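=== RUN LOG ===
request id: a7f3
mode: sequence -> structure
chains: 1
length: 287
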Amino acid sequence: MRVLVTGCNGQLGNVLVDLLTKRPADVVKGVDLPAVDITDPASVREVITHFAPDVVINCAAWTAVDAAEEREADALKVNGDGPRVLAEACKAAGAWLVQISTDYVFAGDEKTPYPEDATADPKTAYGRTKLVGEIAVQQVLPEAHYLVRTAWLYGLQGNNFVKTMLILEAGRDNVSVVDDQHGQPTYARDLAEQILLLLDARPPAGTFHATNAGATTWFEFTRAIFESIGADPQRVLATDSASFVRPAPRPAYSVLGQDKWQVVGLAPMRDWRAALTAAFADGISAP
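=== RESULT ===
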C-alpha cells in the first residue's frame, strides 16, 4: 500500500509516518508546508501524480480553535477547501482519502455519546469549517473515503494538553481545571494505529469515531496526569467554564460513540487511562 500523509509534521501525521515506515509492505511519503499546500490544486496534483498513492491521509488542518473565531475565512480555506482539493485529486488518481475530523462538528449539548450518524450542528467557527471539509469529501468521493472524527488529541510531538499540564505541575503549587466539559482524551499513537487497522480491513466508505474509550473531564484527566508522574492529584482544583471564558465556546459534552467499529468487525480503541499510561511509557514529557 502506498500512503501519502499530508500534515506530516503534526502530532498525528508524524506518528502515522513513523508507523508506516516500519511496515515493510508499505511505502509512505509525508508532506507538509511549505513543500505542499493542500489548498493549492496544482501543488496537490503534483505530489499525487509523482507519488501515485493508493491512500491519502489528510492530517493537515487549521486547529487554532480560538483564532478561527476571528479568522474563519482563513480556517475555512484549510479545513474546508483543502479537503475538497485533496478529494478531487484523489478521485482523478483513483485513490482513497482519509479525512481527519473533530467532535466540534457537534453542538456538545447532549448527555449520551454522539453516534457516527448524529446530526452535525457546530457552534464554533472551527467546527463549521471542519464540517465543510467533511461534506466536500463525502460529495467528491462517496465510495472511496473514511471520515475519522477524534477528540482531545495528545501525543509525543507538538504542543498539547498533557504537556501543558506537565509544565504547570512543575511551576505552580495548584492548578485549576474545568470540571464541566466531558470528552475523551485520545493518544495520537493509538489513533494512528486505529487508522491503519481501518485501511488494512478496508470496510465500505463511511464515518468512524476514533477516540480512546471511556469519558472524563479535563479536571479528572489532569488528576490522572499528575498521578502518572507521582505528583499529588489533590493539587488539581476543580473549576467551571465560566471561569475560563474563551473566544470559542467549548462543548460541554462531546463524547463520541464507537458503535461503527463493531458493525464492521473491528475492535474499538482501548480505554483512555491505559492509553495515558502508554504515553508516559513512550516518553511523553513537557517541552
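=== NOTES ===
The CA atoms of residues 170 and 286 lie 9 Å apart.
The longest helix spans residues 72-93.
=== END ===
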